[in-house]
Every structure is written in C-alpha cells, then in structure tokens.
Model the fold of this input.
Amino acid sequence: MADTEKIIDVLIAIDTESIINDYGTNTDPNNPTQVDTSKNYIYMIVRSDEAVSGNAGAELTIAAKTLDVIRWRETSPTLNATYSTILYEFDSPNSDGLITTPQPIVVEINTPLPVASDPLHPSTQTIKDYFWNCTVEKAGSVTYHFKFMIVDRDNNIQGYFWWDPFIQITD
Done:
C-alpha cells in the first residue's frame, strides 16, 4: 500500500459474561438487545494515532482517510473459552457511500502454540478465522451498528445484541 493508505485494525473485546448476566438471553436475531454503552461491556481498541476519542471504550471514534481499510475483530475476555462472540451484521443508516459495505472475510491463518518442553520455540496450528472489512471512500462521519451474538462453549446461542460506534473520515 502507498504511504497514504493504511489498514486500521479495530479489536473489540466484549464482556460476554456480564452481558448475559445483566441482559439475559434474547433468541431473536432480527430484534437484538441494545447494549448500554455507558456501562463497561464493550472495549474497542485501535492504535493511539488512529483514535479520535474513546479508545478502549464502546464509543470509539476513529480517524480514517479515503482508501484506508478498516478491519474489525472481536473476542471475549475469556478468549472464547466460556463464551464466544460473533459479529453477524453491520448496519449503517447514514454511510451514504462514505465506506464500502463491510463484509466478513474468512481466512486461514497459522497461530503459535507454546511448547512446554521448549518455550522458546513455539509450534503452530492452522485455523480458520475471520474479520469484517471495508474501504473508506470519502470524508464524513459514519454512525454504525454492529450486531453480535454470544454463544457458549457448546455453540448454543445465548443472545443477540448490538451497539453503535462511529467512524470519522477526515481526509
């Protein structure tokens, strides 16, 4: 990529256990429960130079320029051991051609695993992973909603939820 284009990685940590405890279950993916962003359930993190405001909070505003790529990935604090979370729908009522429609992209990656007998030389495992991806097309502000589901370790759906962060395209 040219110096003027970059990839902005957004890591989303969702406190799945607290959401389930406080909101209960909701089994309707077409009517997810809105998560109160004033409570500390969702933490969105980018590099400090990419954050306009709200880094490590649920209302992150990021700065982007035309042709930048934005990628969203999510996890839970238990790293998916107890509950996992999956982003399943992106909705932006005011994007007006400011960004391409984000889509999930499934990839195959090698990830390291520690070796107890030789901790300085990890092994690797190949897994499928995914992220949501879009390209910035022009300057403006985008409010968007990400819908996500929470599943337990047996892949049973525990609920459907959403919240609404921002993108500021500064060009």
About this structure: Residues 16-23 form the longest helix (8 residues). The helical segments are 16-23. Residues 13 and 75 are 5 Å apart (CA to CA).
